[in-house]
Design goal:
Elements (H helix, E strand, L loop, with lengths): L6 H20 L31 H9 L3 H12 L6 E4 L2 E4 L7 H17 L12 H17 L1 H21 L2 H12 L5 E4 L15 E5 L4 E5 L7 E5 L7 E10 L2 E11 L11 E5 L11 E6 L2 E4 L9 E2 L5 E2 L5 H7 L2 H29 L3 E2 L9 E2 L4 H29 L6 H29 L11 H8 L9 H22 L24 H4 L2 H28 L4 H7 L1 H25 L5 H20 L2 H4 L5 H18 L3 H6 L15 H4 L8
Parallel strand pairs: 3-7, 4-7
Antiparallel strand pairs: 1-2, 4-5, 5-11, 6-10, 7-8, 9-10, 12-13, 14-15
Helix pairs in contact: 3-5, 4-6, 5-6, 5-9, 6-7, 6-9, 9-10, 9-11, 10-11, 10-17, 10-18, 10-20, 11-12, 11-13, 11-17, 13-15, 13-17, 15-16, 15-17, 15-18, 17-18, 18-20
Length: about 675
């Protein structure tokens, strides 16, 4: 029979073991082991260029995605790097430029204005309002994209002055307005702002409460803020610097409301003193854009000359007769929203460039930062060599490329606009402004997380940019409202085509004239990567959702509900349709850009990006499963193909972000030698 240990013997064993441990601890000979310990090798930074090859021409790729004014962009980048106004600092052996966000709100505003005048003196704004033709407009848009990469506040401060104030005078004014105001605006003799939004009304511009009444006896308009909800709110430039504003108000003529009109009003004199009967307050500190002096304005029966009515759409004669060639009030109101289109074009384009900044930083970091090993005592693995990390960043990279082509297309149709194309531009700019700004916020968040704790440091940009660019989702039109406008416009096209029995034309809806695409019951890798399958999937979703949306609205109306109520109740289909239209439009611009390229490495990598954009769109939108466009098995095949595309894009990751053409100085230190940037020697003692 085997013996067993008693409780007392177990206790003795424990005491003996502890005694031996303590004896070894106090034995001095153990402090000097016969073999010296080997210290582990410290991490060192190795530039990813040493191990990552470029299989295509990055300069040609940049030409393709920037599209225009490359030399002008690089000149402006260089101009900012030259001046201490742009806060150059050395980190890790490189010089970086970005605003000093440790400054107070007041200091940031002052620095923004000083930078504006620095750029003005060097001719950056030459032709912004007086230049003519598409080339001048594309140069302006290119400069806005570069300025936004440095600082959103700087881009917005200049954008309000030129695109909103200046754009309102261009679009709404006539010759005498142009002659009086445009040159002085371009040279900052006057500093303009744009007073449309009110405390009580943002997206619903038609409902604003500020009132302008015509005084025929004196030939003046009297502008008044009748209640607190009518105060002008979020007016960029109003709190500190603006001398003039374009005020949007209801025009009251002989007791009759003629709707929203625009007036030039002086709010400060040449010495910066607030004008009589004008009250201005500061909106205060914000989660971003603290370099912009957003203000609130009240008008207490402010009188302005009759000539200050911007009268390209409607006019008032000296004796008080209201005159307009546009008789339909709805069409007249739509004409007053024209400047917002230029703003949306600019916002959509700059959103793509901020996505590029965050991806360039996060991907460069992931090509030099290692974590964990996959074998015992093996080397740690680069972050971007983990399939999960590829899955986080590379689909966003493909989307950013796709959206670069879409933004370039939007800018092109905008600068070549005609009166007949304005409606199309409004719809496409609304869709892309919403889609591209949402994508930017998602990309910033994912890149912030992908950089771990380093993503929280302001100097590494990504985390701070989230607060700076969050506003893009709601200004110049709330994204959700814009997408509903898109769906309403598509419904109007659908109803008109069906009612008149005519073919669809415009907005890319020509695919509706063809037979309905058929999606294969089984997918192979080659099938999933074919352009035909991809475009069929996008078109099938769009045409079916448009049909469903029309049917649902019609059903509500058949039950006696108003058209507007029917829209409200069909909001889910409206949201799905808006997304379908946007993504199909973006995909169409991608395949058009790809189609003109000759065979070769550049076209090959674009093919991978195009397939990634298409398949990640299929995977992420529940509509494809919800409405049966894809079977569960096909959806699983799509998911697997996305993973394969990630592994095939991985070798091109560095080349793809380098092709963005963003200078080193405009990225964060973690994009380069992050060890040296955080070394003790870099600390200011």
């Amino acid at each position: 029979m085997a013996s067993s240990s008693s409780p007392s013997s177990t206790s003795i064993d424990r005491v003996t073991f502890r005694t031996h441990v303590l004896a070894r601890h106090f034995d001095q000979s153990d402090l000097n082991p016969p073999h010296s310990l080997q210290s582990s090798v410290c991490l060192s930074y190795s530039p990813p260029e040493l191990s990552e090859g470029f299989e295509f021409n990055i300069h040609e790729m940049r030409k393709l995605i920037d599209g225009h004014n490359l030399e002008d962009r690089d000149w402006l980048f260089g101009l900012m790097k030259q001046s201490k106004l742009f806060c150059p600092r050395e980190r890790g052996g490189r010089v970086f430029v970005s605003p000093d966000y440790n400054q107070s709100m007041e200091q940031q505003r002052e620095m923004t204005m000083r930078r504006v005048f620095y750029l003005l003196e060097r001719g950056v704004f030459q032709g912004f309002l007086t230049g003519k033709g598409p080339e001048a407009e594309l140069r302006k848009l290119a400069f806005f994209e570069v300025l936004a990469i440095f600082d959103h506040s700087l881009g917005i401060k200049i954008g309000v002055h030129f695109m909103l104030w200046g754009g309102a005078i261009q679009f709404f004014g006539t010759k005498h307005h142009h002659e009086k105001w445009l040159r002085d605006t371009e040279e900052y003799v006057v500093k303009g702002c744009f007073a449309m939004t009110e405390l009580g009304h943002g997206s619903n511009v038609r409902g604003i409460e500020t009132v302008a009444t015509y005084d025929s006896r004196n030939g003046e308009f009297v502008i008044n803020t009748p209640c607190e909800s009518a105060q002008k709110y979020w007016i960029g430039g109003a709190a500190n610097h603006a001398t003039h504003t374009v005020v949007f108000s209801q025009l009251n003529m002989n007791g009759s409301n003629q709707g929203v009109h625009a007036f030039i009003v002086q709010i400060r004199d040449g010495n910066g003193n607030i004008c009589q009967n004008v009250r201005i307050a500061d909106c205060g500190h914000k989660i971003g854009l603290n370099g912009v002096d957003n203000g609130r304005i009240w008008f207490d029966n402010v009188r302005v000359p009759r000539e200050n009515l911007l009268n390209s759409v409607a006019d008032v004669s000296l004796d008080g007769q209201y005159v307009s060639e546009i008789k339909d009030p709805d069409q007249r109101f739509a004409a007053f929203l024209a400047p917002l289109t230029s703003g949306r074009v600019n916002i959509a384009a700059t959103a793509v460039y901020i996505s590029k900044v965050s991806l360039a930083i996060a991907i460069r970091y992931s090509l030099t930062r290692r974590a964990f090993s996959v074998t015992p005592k093996g080397p740690e693995v680069l972050l971007l060599d983990y399939p999960s990390h590829q899955r986080r960043l590379l689909p966003l990279l493909a989307k950013t490329y796709a959206m670069s082509f879409a933004a370039l297309y939007l800018k092109t149709i905008y600068v070549k606009r005609t009166p007949d194309s304005n409606k199309t531009i409004h719809i496409i700019s609304s869709a892309l402004k919403a889609t591209l700004t949402w994508h930017n916020m998602r990309t910033l968040q994912e890149c912030r997380e992908a950089c771990g704790g380093q993503g929280l440091l302001t100097e590494n940009l990504i985390g701070h940019l989230k607060g700076e660019y969050d506003v893009q989702s709601t200004f110049e039109g709330d994204n959700n409202v814009l997408m509903q406008q898109v769906s309403k416009a598509l419904l109007a096209e659908y109803v008109a085509a069906k009612k008149k029995n005519r073919a669809f034309s415009g907005l890319g809806l020509e695919h509706m004239n063809k037979s309905c695409p058929i999606i294969p019951s089984e997918f192979t890798s080659s099938t999933l990567r074919s352009i035909q399958l991809q475009i069929d999937a996008f078109c099938l979703r769009e045409r079916d959702l448009l049909s469903r949306f029309a049917s649902e609205v019609s059903e509500h109306q058949a039950r006696g509900q108003s058209k507007e109520y029917a829209f409200f109740m069909s909001y889910q289909l409206a949201e799905d349709l808006g997304k379908a239209f946007s993504e199909r439009t973006i995909f169409q611009t991608f395949i058009e850009a790809e189609a003109v390229l000759p065979s070769g490495s550049l076209k090959n990598v674009l093919g991978l990006l195009r397939s990634m954009y298409a398949l990640i769109s299929l995977e992420e939108d529940a509509s494809f499963l919800r409405y049966g466009y894809l079977s569960p098995d096909n959806a699983a095949s799509v998911r697997k193909e996305v993973a394969r595309l990630c592994s095939e894009l991985r070798p091109h990751a560095l080349a793809l972000v380098t092709s963005f053409g963003i200078p080193d100085a405009f990225l964060g230190p973690i994009a380069y030698n992050w060890i040296e940037a955080n070394s003790w020697s870099s600390v200011e003692h």
